[in-house]
Amino acid sequence: MEKFWHKLGSFTFHRSQSDDKSRSISNTDIGALTIQATTIAWFRKLLGYSPSSSKVYVTALTHRSIVHDQAEPEDSNQRLEFLGDAVLDLIISEHLYTCFPDSDEGKLSSNRAKIVNRKSLAGFARKISLSEHLLIGESADKNKIRSSESTLADAFEALIGAIYLDMGLAEAKNFILRHVINHVDLKKLDAVENNYKSRLIEYTQSRQLSPPVYTVISEEGAEHEKLFTIEVSCEGKPLGWGRAGRKKDAEQSAAKEALTTLETDSC
Fold it and tell me: How far apart are the C-alpha atoms of 229 and 23, rounded to whole Å?
């Protein structure tokens, strides 16, 4: 462990002149990613083991706002978020499959979506004080990007991706168990039905219709403040539209509108 923390400590320390724990990185700082000693201590307490890689964890904390439009950009956490999302889906799916042996595919998908969504992931991120340790560009930080649900959700998944790459699936599963599953009331979760995408699939299947198709209509805003507009259609007919900072959430909104449309038409 000492070897890892010595290596991590070799990154340039950036000490704020204020007592604010947040980290903002200006463009001139990007060449040498900065990290505070408090973040090293936070990593040590959060992970509880000796990682073999340091850079992957720093990358997990790096918001895309500090690397956008740079001539020689450092890695942001977007790729790790993609990987962590897949790992999280796998572990949550396995857990739900085991806990609900009588649930069908639609119900399992519905319960998973209640856990793996922007709002809930942001909540898990807040529980581990993740926002305090993110590396974010100055302009984005002034716009309160640090505390946004999409930023926190993405960073949480990126951290899972980093753990998976560094220590493997077993440690990633252990982290998800401690910081996700142990904070979810599965009985209460199973009683709530709010996964509109799954409900839309069930609706189309029950009527022998083609599966819903989700299409990105537009992407607006800066790279670190994207807004996606999604259209959902069935058999070529547009049924609903959704708009959100993450594609998954826009798809849920589109599916919700589609269900309203279909239920209204059937009356």
Answer: 31
**pTM for this structure?**
0.64
Q: 61-105 pLDDT, tens per residue? A: 998 887 654 544 568 899 999 999 999 999 999 999 999 898 878
Q: Which fold has domain 2-80+112-191?
A: Ribonuclease iii, N-terminal Endonuclease Domain; Chain A (1.10.1520)
Strand, coil or helix: 260: helix
d(CA 179, CA 159): 12
Kindly give, in sequence order, each residue whose CB lies less than 8 Å from that of residue 63, ignoring residues fewer than 6 positions away.
76, 77, 134, 135, 136, 137, 140, 145, 146, 151, 155, 224
Residue with tokens 């720093």: 58
Do the beta carbons of residue 11 and residue 34 sit within 8 Å?
yes
pLDDT digits (tens, 9 = 90+) for 152-169: 999 999 999 999 999 999
Same fold, 2-80+112-191 and 196-265: no
CATH fold group of domain 196-265: Double Stranded RNA Binding Domain (3.30.160)
How far is residue 78's CA from residue 265's CA, in Å, rounded to a whole number? 40
Domain boundaries, the chain: 2-80+112-191, 196-265
d(CA 56, CA 61): 9
Active-site positions?
Answer: 85, 157
The residues of the chain scoring below 50 in pLDDT are: 1-5, 7-32, 69, 71-72, 267
Nearest to 228 by CA among 213, 215, 209, 211: 215
